[in-house]
Specification:
single chain; alpha/beta; Rossmann fold; 2 domains; 7-stranded parallel beta sheet; 5-stranded parallel beta sheet; 8 helices; 17 strands; binds flavin-adenine dinucleotide
Length: 334
């Protein structure tokens, strides 16, 4: 039986987020012959310039192997407001198969929307999927981490129900543009509901231009960095590599940096290509958020620090000597 897959695309600062292309790839990897893939794009264009950018984003989705792009563009969707965005998705759901398989990024917005949508659609939900594969019986089996990454579980849905999945960012290779593809773009009208909350302003506290959750390279600091000023060389190394700065909770608790940078069980989960841990001991709660990074480099002056047990490369030494040396070496190379 044909299934419909639906990607809920997410934008930031008017640009399609990479995780949405990763979700497309994840869904495509699980589709059978005859299955269809739709993308839902919620936008809050306010003015001609934003409307043009919105239409460019919709076209981009239409080029990535989707069969249809559904756009709901209304000023009330400009800033994330759970009730309004949920109402817009429910509007889109009316135009989709009742048993559709929904795919969202496991981002702050995806995490918030997915369970709301699941409750309203009577759907089953899997959060933070690390892998998805179609089994011989046609069921899609999702893999997710449990107990701070110590165990993996595999889950599949019973047939006949809508399903909702959030996929971990940076874990699937993003879908590529399909030459000549230009799926139809359909706009749906939307009347926003009365919302209990109004988002007046969004103040971004984390500095840096690279989004931590989607960064390919992360330079993270722990309590061993010793002060807010101590993060400066880490930021310099991150900038040199085109990466982002992250932190352990130890560093955040000590007031060296903002909690927006915290990586771990109660912070962000990241899967960069390269994770450089500086002055981080490697507590299990920290490892839960970064141990699936592709290459881990640990810099710690304690040779017995647990971080070395997950590191691909370890440098036993003082980070205040090692990081500047890396900057010097890379500056002459890059
Ligand atoms: C419920 C719960 C949830 C938690 N969630 C998280 C989470 O999401 N993320 C998280 O990170 N933690 C989390 N924690 C806290 C976690 O248990 C650790 O306390 C924390 O990760 C320690 O941070 P740290 O490695 O920076 O500090 P420390 O454990 O103090 O380690 C500092 C390291 O720096 C090294 N060092 C010191 N000076 C230097 C130097 N000059 N050069 C090189 N190395 C140096 C030391 O050898 C040491 O290994 C959680 C804890 C609990 C109970």
């Amino acid at each position: 039986m044909m299934s419909q897959h639906v990607i809920v695309a997410e934008c930031r600062d008017g640009k399609l987020r990479r995780v949405s292309l990763e979700a497309i790839a994840a869904a495509k990897g699980c589709m059978a012959d005859g299955d269809r893939l739709a993308a839902v794009l919620l936008l809050g264009s306010d003015g001609a310039g934003e409307a043009a950018a919105a239409s460019a984003t919709a076209k981009l989705l239409a080029q990535h192997g989707t069969d249809e792009v559904i756009v709901i563009d209304h000023p009330s969707l400009g800033r994330y407001a759970p009730q309004v965005h949920l109402a817009a998705l429910l509007e889109a759901a009316k135009a989709l198969a009742p048993e559709a398989r929904w795919w969202l990024g496991h981002t702050a917005i995806g995490r918030d929307l997915a369970p709301r949508l699941a409750a309203r659609l009577g759907a089953g939900q899997v959060s933070d999927a690390l892998a998805a594969a179609r089994g011989a019986d046609g069921r899609i089996v999702f893999t997710r981490a449990l107990h701070a990454g110590k165990a993996l579980e595999r889950r599949a849905f019973l047939p006949g129900y809508p399903t909702i999945v959030t996929v971990r960012p940076n874990n699937f290779a993003p879908a590529a543009i399909v030459a000549g593809a230009a799926a139809p773009i359909r706009s749906l009208p939307f009347t926003p509901p009365q919302s209990h909350t109004i988002v007046c302003d969004v103040v971004r506290r984390a500095s840096g231009t690279v989004d931590l959750a989607e960064a390919r390279i992360i330079v993270a600091g722990g309590r061993g960095v010793k002060s807010a000023a101590g993060f400066a060389p880490l930021a310099e190394l991150a900038a040199l590599l085109g990466g982002a700065v992250g932190a352990s909770r130890g560093a955040c608790d000590a007031g060296y940096c903002d909690y927006a940078l915290q990586i771990g069980q109660t912070g962000k989960t990241v899967t960069p290509d390269l994770y450089i841990a500086c002055g981080i001991s490697g507590a299990v709660q920290h490892l839960a958020g970064m141990s699936r990074s592709r290459v881990i480099v640990a810099i710690n002056k304690d040779p017995d620090a647990p971080i070395f047990s997950v590191a691909d490369y370890g440098i036993v030494g003082d980070l205040f000597e090692v990081v500047p040396a890396l900057i010097d070496g890379l500056s002459s190379e890059l």
